[in-house]
Write a structure and sequence with these properties.
By secondary structure, this protein is mainly alpha-helical. It is built from 15 helices and no strands.
Length: about 280
């Protein structure tokens, strides 16, 4: 193993900060107590984001007969999920557009996977044994795999070797293999980026522990399990990020926090797939 963790952290320190609007949106969206109007106030003062939201709501995906020009009305139709997705795709385009060569992935795979995970996490949150804010789960899911874009370049030409190690039982999952190769897995890399961007909790904790939710701080554990399950659902739906798809272990202790029947998973997968297609269509239209 070659420990390249200090090199990775140094690269993270060079990533440009989030835009003030994106940072403010994430700060609000990560709070348990917030409403859509809190987000509207931020968008109103950002001309670029306002233009993007109006473009989305007037796309074919929404199918309105008359053009919508009022930002308040536009956001009431797009909702928080689409708004946060749009803000992050604009603010972190460098990361979302990574080709993920180290995972044998394609450009756009990370964005698709994170979006589907976010939708899955929000639906899973509805089944939490204690109340869980679905909008916060969505935001956490949208950011959970940022670390892959950071370490992908360090993992080039390793995918075949990792798959062989997994198949032979030498490593338990893909994240463990990353740790052995680099001294840091994508969860830790994403956590370091969250700190660099000064993201508020629970975002850093969810990013750090989404493959080992049992180790998360107790106050965030149910939320981490929701994202953990959303991540698995996204991979099961065929939206992975390359060679690592379905190469992680499901933590069955989720049942301590989430009450899911077998048919619930099938219904969630159908629901999030249709939502995913609408958001994708609106943002690309």
């Amino acid at each position: 193993m070659e420990d390249r963790s200090s090199e990775i952290v140094r690269d993270i320190s060079q990533i440009k900060p989030l835009s003030p609007s994106a940072a403010s949106l994430l700060d609000i969206a990560s709070k348990e107590e917030h409403d859509l109007m809190d987000l509207v106030q931020i968008v109103k003062h950002d001309a670029s984001l306002t233009a993007q939201v109006l473009k989305v709501v007037n796309s074919a995906a929404y199918g309105f007969d008359k053009e919508i020009t009022a930002i308040d009305r536009a956001i009431s139709f797009t909702g928080e999920d689409a708004l946060v997705s749009l803000a992050m795709s604009e603010a972190a385009a460098m990361i979302y557009e990574s080709d993920l060569a180290g995972y044998s992935g394609q450009k756009g795979d990370l964005w698709d996977h994170n979006l589907l995970t976010a939708l899955g996490a929000k639906k899973v949150a509805e089944h939490a044994k204690s109340p869980l804010n679905g909008d916060v789960a969505f935001t956490c899911g949208l950011l959970h795999d940022f670390g892959k874009a950071i370490i992908s370049g360090f993992l080039e030409n390793t995918a075949d070797k990792v798959i062989k190690a997994l198949d032979s039982g030498k490593v338990a999952d893909y994240a463990t293999a990353e740790e052995k190769i680099l001294g840091m897995d994508h969860c830790r890399a994403g956590f370091e980026l969250a700190k660099h961007w000064q993201l508020p909790e629970p975002l850093p904790s969810v990013i750090r522990y989404h493959h080992e939710p049992h180790a998360a701080p107790e106050e965030y554990r149910a939320l981490v399990y929701a994202v953990h399950l959303g991540d698995m659902l996204a991979m099961m739906s065929g939206k992975g990020t390359g060679a690592d798809a379905m190469r992680y272990v499901l933590d069955n202790r989720y049942s301590d926090y989430i009450d899911l029947a077998e048919n619930d998973l099938a219904l969630i997968m159908m629901d999030i797939d249709s939502q995913f297609m609408k958001i994708k269509e609106s943002m690309e239209g």
